Amino acid sequence: MSGRRPKKGPDEPEEPNRHPRRPDGPFDGKKGGDRESVGDDPDPVEEGSEPTDGNAEETTKDDDAPPENDDTRDEERPPRTRPYPNVRFLLGIDGFPEAGFSACRVGGSGTEPLRYREGNEPLDYRLVPGTTTYEPVLLERGVGDAAALAGWRRLVEQGRMNEARRDVEVILLDEAGNPGPRWELRAAWPARYVAPDLDARDGDVAVETLELVHEGIERTGVE
C-alpha cells in the first residue's frame, strides 16, 4: 500500500480539523501573550482620531468656570463705618442731568407737638403730633451758560405746577466718587431764585441760589 490517503467517497463525512482549538477564556490564542477579552475592551479608537479621556468633560467644565479670583463677580461692598466727608455730593433732578453745586443745605423735617387733655385726667397735658413741616433745600452754584434751572423756576412763575414738581435726590459721595447715602425729596419745586451779587472790586465767583420746597424727605442708605 502506498502512503497516500485514500480519497473520500461522496457520502463520507469530512474529518474534523486536526489543528488544535483556540483556547476559550481571556486569551485569543494569538502568539504574543495576554489580551483582555472583548467584553472588557474599551471602545475602539478609530484610525486618525485622538483617544478620548474619561476626564475630558470635567476638564471642559473646569475651563469654562471662572477663576476664584475673578473680579467680574458681584461682590457686596462692606458697610462703611467712618463718617463721609461733606465735600463731595451731587443732585439728581427728574428731567435734568445730574448737577453739581458748590453748596447744599438739605434741611430737615419737624412735627409740631399739640397739648391735649380731657377733664377726667390729671392736670398734666398729653402731647400729640400735629402738622409736619419740611425745611426748604438751599442750593448754590457758580453761574454758567446753562439756564435749565432758571427755566425750572419759570414754570412756577407761569403756574405750570404739574410740570414744575419734580423728585430730587441729594447724593453724598465717598472719597472715590462712589454714591453713598442719599436724601430723596418728593414733589420738589423751586420757590425762590436769587441771582449772584456782582462786584468789580471783589473778584469772587458769581454764585446763584435756588431754594427748593418739597412735600417729604426720606433718608436712604447705600444701594
TrEMBL record:
InterPro entries: CHP02241 (IPR011747), Phage_T4_Gp19 (IPR010667). Residues 1-86 are annotated as: Disordered. It holds the Pfam family Phage_T4_gp19. Residues 39-50 have a biased composition (Acidic residues). Transmembrane segments: none annotated. Residues 8-38 have a biased composition (Basic and acidic residues). It comes from the Archaea. This is Phage tail protein.
